[in-house]
Design brief:
2 domains, alpha+beta, HIT family, subunit A, disordered N terminus, HIT domain-containing protein, about 190 residues, two-stranded antiparallel sheet
């Protein structure tokens, strides 16, 4: 069990209850499915641990809230960026696609690639045969962006689909991530 997975497996109540203490480390015992166990002493940073839980919960809550209005046709923040109502750092643009830097980057290079016309394509799960061309153009634009950013030798494309994937803007978009070693499995 990876340490990251182990931290995710620690019940929130343990972290919350420990936050009031002056503990410098947590002693954690992890037991695998074949009943082998390992004890780890992990550094304890109460604020950092609480922030991780809080950020994950906030992201999930925001995604669920965004899903409620997903298909109402109202302009999204991306529509406002396309119309230049909201400033962005544009990396690539053609007649059908716009790519710009994410304001909350998860990697040294984090670019969002979006279709300029939504056409009902609020998420990949809503794709229809009429969207085949734009889906291909989005992927090709992602390759151009990776090339321009100097990450063609290693980058990742991520599409969050729906609230369980923490999609927060219902205008299909690709995340182009790179500039660091990616890990597997993601998420």
């Amino acid at each position: 069990m990876a340490v990251g997975n182990l931290m995710a497996a620690i019940p929130f109540s343990l972290v919350r209850n420990s936050a009031a203490t002056t503990a410098k480390a947590l002693l954690v015992t992890a037991r695998s499915s074949n009943h082998n166990s390992i004890q780890l002493t992990l550094p304890f940073h109460p604020r950092r641990s609480l922030c991780r839980v809080s950020a994950a919960n906030n992201e999930e809550a925001a995604a669920k809230a965004a899903a409620v209005d997903a298909d109402n046709g109202a302009p999204t923040i991306f529509d406002k960026i396309i119309n230049k109502e909201i400033p962005s750092s544009i990396v690539y643009e053609d007649e059908k696609v716009l790519a710009f830097r994410d304001v909350n980057p998860q990697a040294p290079v984090h670019i969002l690639v979006i279709p300029k016309l939504r056409d009902g394509l609020t998420q990949l799960g809503k794709a229809e045969p009429k969207h085949v061309d734009i889906l291909g153009q989005l992927l090709y634009a992602a390759k151009i962006v990776a090339e321009k950013e100097g990450i063609l030798d290693g980058f990742r494309i991520v599409i969050n689909n729906g609230p369980k994937a923490c999609q927060s803007v219902y205008h299909l978009h690709l995340h182009v991530l790179g500039g660091r070693q990616m890990k597997w499995p993601p998420g």
